């Protein structure tokens, strides 16, 4: 069982907006920065969002992050076929003194 | 080119030890914290351990404590993971990844391609 909870899967059609949720607690999301990673099939993960809502250079502004209390969300607008991937949320956990990941959400573009 | 290259994985019997290595190039290795993250076949990401830029802070995931030891050699731009008393559940692809900051942790922005560890008799 992952410390952070994500839905196992979600889907959308091209051009649509989808959101992926990530639920945690006060010791992680509720008090620490949230990070999102994208993992395309057969490849290493890629940092998509850091510090809740910041995008590294090269990441399209179609990707955005937010936090409310001890939950976070990743939003993808203008969905494209190349967005089909596994998405993971992560945060530092003060109680565990380590990084915790969500279980991952598989996004399918229909 | 910014790069992390892992090595040292392979097939190992339960209870034995293995040492993973990761060599960095293309960035100032000694300015950043480093981590190991693993992924079991068909499973999600799991943080294993992290080490600050000067080795002053080291943390491990709870399930790895006492069996794994992370270290770094800034002169060699290298990160290591010494794994002992290996179990079948340690079977995974082990990624070396760099932190965005010098201390733990501000996101993992550079990733290697991983080295596969298989624990089986």
Topology of this protein?
The complex is a heterodimer of chains A (110) and B (121).
Chain A: E1 9-12, E2 18-23, E3 34-39, E4 46-49, E5 63-68, E6 71-76, E7 85-93, E8 98-101, E9 105-109
Parallel strand pairs in A: 1-9
Antiparallel strand pairs in A: 2-6, 3-4, 3-7, 5-6, 7-8, 7-9
Chain B: E1 3-7, E2 10-12, E3 18-25, E4 34-39, E5 45-51, E6 58-60, E7 68-73, E8 78-83, E9 92-99, E10 108-111, E11 115-119
Parallel strand pairs in B: 2-11
Antiparallel strand pairs in B: 1-3, 3-8, 4-5, 4-9, 5-6, 7-8, 9-10, 9-11
Briefly say what this structure is.
The complex is a heterodimer of chains A (110) and B (121). Chain A has strands spanning 9-12, 18-23, 34-39, 46-49, 63-68, 71-76, 85-93, 98-101, 105-109.
Low-confidence runs of at least 5 consecutive residues of chain B: none
**Considering DSSP H and I runs of 4 or more, what fraction of the residues of chain A is helical?**
under 10%
Query: SSE order of chain B, as H and E?
Result: EEEEEEEEEEE
Overall geometry of chain A:
globular
- What's the overall average pLDDT of chain A, rounded? 97
Structural class of chain A: mainly beta
Estimate the global geometry of chain B from the Cα principal axes: globular
Oligomeric state of the chains in view: heterodimer
Radius of gyration of chain A: 13 Å
Biggest beta sheet summary of chain B: 7 strands, mixed
Tally of DSSP helical segments of chain A: 0
Count of alpha/pi helices of chain B: 0
Query: Could you give the distance between the termini of chain B?
Result: 39 Å
Query: How far is it from the N-terminal to the C-terminal residue of chain A, by CA?
Result: 29 Å
- The pLDDT mean of chain B sits at 97
Could you walk me through the main structural features you see in this protein, from its secondary elements to its overall organization?
The complex is a heterodimer of chains A (110) and B (121). Chain A has no helices and nine strands. The radius of gyration of chain A is 13 Å and the shape is globular. Chain A has 110 residues and is mostly beta strands. In chain B, the strands form two sheets. In chain B, strands 2, 4, 5, 6, 9, 10 and 11 form a seven-stranded mixed beta sheet that branches. Chain B starts with a strand and ends with a strand. Chain B is built from no helices and eleven strands. The mean pLDDT of chain B is 97.
